[in-house]
Predict the structure.
Amino acid sequence: MQNIKNIIFDYGNVIFTLDFLKSRQAWQDLGIDNAGTFYGHKVQDEIFTSFERGDVTADEFRARIREILNKPELTDEQIDYAWNSLLIGVPGGNHELLLSLKSKYRTFLLSNINVIHYDYIMNYLKNDFGFEGNDHLFEKTYYSHLIGKRKPEAEIFEQVLKENDLDPAETLFIDDSPQHIATAQKLGIRTYLMTAPDTIQAFFKRLEAGE
């Protein structure tokens, strides 16, 4: 990884731990029969894609969930609980690592997210760490629902590169989704696929050791 000057981080399962099995169980508990393909790491219902792009509101998202389940009686709280069950938290040491990397590289956050998860995470960061979001950890943050684009669309990568005058050959993108990595590689961005049980702390320790 020589000549890396910029790092673009994914959020889920790179910085913030997600549990797709827990999420699948929560959707099953609400009555989704095909929970694995309804919302999963690589496959998901179109409503989630639209929600992450900011094309639908939280109320429209919940209405669609009720429609899919044919359960108009479901409350907002029940739907939000199932949806947020995916979110576990930030492992100790990750924030400290990001702050140290910010002093050595130009660092950016690029996350597929939606307003319900965004609000949950912002509250979590404030309550558990006293943070007002993630802005202090990076030069700039990009959240899909706020900019109307999402990975693996090339346009969202191109926006980050262009707005910050980044050379793809000097830029490392770290993500846990192969389809996102593939798009970045096509644009000449250097990549690392984060796969459990690997972590960013272990990765950068190896990097510093020259492994």
Notes: The longest strand covers residues 106-111. The chain is about 45% helix and 15% strand.
